[in-house]
């Protein structure tokens, strides 16, 4: 199993960021990534630990129709969660396994540090480009921050 880590600071209060990334994820993701994700359906569970989510991708997304994820870690008391991809998505693009974990830490009242860890395995024939494991995550975080800043200013 390989591991990539990254850190990024966003201008969103920790409680608002956690709500969007964790408890409201099903409703927020299609609004944050409207050209990529058309719907997030709860397949199993209550949205917390052990829940399964189906991410349905828009027709224009190349080579991917869906991604099923299971929440394998969820601890609101320390703002930490992890999602394991079970089917589709990254697994259709050279990965055998892919789990992403987020740990949020308050920096200031209006800023949050996001520690990101990706655990993954690739197919032997897959040549991994450095940074490829984080590319979609950084895009999501950037779009989420813009969405929440717009939402908080209204």
Automatic annotation (TrEMBL):
Pfam families given in the database record: Bet_v_1
A GO term from the CC aspect: nucleus
InterPro entries, per the entry: Bet_v_I/MLP (IPR000916), Plant_def-hormone_signal (IPR050279), START-like_dom_sf (IPR023393)
GO molecular function: abscisic acid binding; protein phosphatase inhibitor activity; signaling receptor activity
One BP term from GO: abscisic acid-activated signaling pathway
Domain Bet v I/Major latex protein, first and last residues per copy: 8-150
Classification via Gene3D superfamilies: 3.30.530.20
Family: Belongs to the BetVI family.
Protein name: Bet v I/Major latex protein domain-containing protein
Lineage: Eukaryota, Viridiplantae, Streptophyta, Embryophyta, Tracheophyta
């Amino acid at each position: 199993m390989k591991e990539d880590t990254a850190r990024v600071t966003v201008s969103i209060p920790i409680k608002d960021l956690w709500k969007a990334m964790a408890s409201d994820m099903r409703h927020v993701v299609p609004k944050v990534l409207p050209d990529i994700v058309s719907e997030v359906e709860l397949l199993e569970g209550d949205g917390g630990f052990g829940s399964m989510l189906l991410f349905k991708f828009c027709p224009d997304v190349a080579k991917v129709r869906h991604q099923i994820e299971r929440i394998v870690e969820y601890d609101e008391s320390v703002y930490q969660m992890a999602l394991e991809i079970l089917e589709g998505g990254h697994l259709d693009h050279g990965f055998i396994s892919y789990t992403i974990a987020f740990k949020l830490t308050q920096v200031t009242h209006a800023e949050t540090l996001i520690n990101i860890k990706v655990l993954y395995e690739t197919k032997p024939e897959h040549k991994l480009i450095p940074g490829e494991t984080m590319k979609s995550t950084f895009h999501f975080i950037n779009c989420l921050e813009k969405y929440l800043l717009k939402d908080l200013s209204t």
